[in-house]
User: Fold this.
Amino acid sequence: MIVPNRVHIIPLGYERDRVVEPPLQLNADVVVLLNHDGAADTKPAYHQEVRQKLEGAAPEVVNHTCDIFDLYASLGGIAETITDYRGDEVYVNLATGSKVTAIAGMIACMATGATPYYVRAERYGPETEHPPAEPVSYGVAGIDEMPAYPIKGPAPEHIAILAYLDEQGRASKKEIIEFSEDVNLPFIQTYESDNIKGKYRLLDSHILNALQEREYVEIKEVGRQKYVSLTEEGQNTLRAFNYLADEV
Assistant:
């Protein structure tokens, strides 16, 4: 019988006790620290102490990086890490990064089924310069599991199309169909006819209508061709859910 690991995903901001105590109290098997990818001088010295304490207590400590002050980068980093541990019991600490990672962590949990939790501090330190040299809070007064109501994320084949458009800059509908056939996307893999009009209808009904409705793409006519390109919203969605393209 395979027993799932208890995996804690913890954005590493300006906290110490609220990072270290939950994995120790809840007997984590794996701790994934989500480090900010900024300059070294923005990372306080006590981060090394945090890593040493965790490495002395948890069987496995993994370090990932992303911009923890960017919503879409944080959402993508957390959600992708959750899927890396699919089949395990995955928990996400909402209290230790930035306000952005708290929002991103909750959305990622709602989209994937992971469990979010919030760590209450015993006391807070004085407000200081940014970045603070000392932790912004001390002690742990309690650990509260948060309710995460499920939401449905984008379909993997939609993300695959967004990734293709991002790579190409823009593409005609014919080029998108050819790409979809090359990588065997689900919406077209069982279509047996060579009727190109039927393929265009499939592309519109299964892909482009939904992407346009969500304002992820825009379609412009250039001469007799229609070209599809990403909007800013589409680019942000791709940043957050790019990992889904691997699941097609």
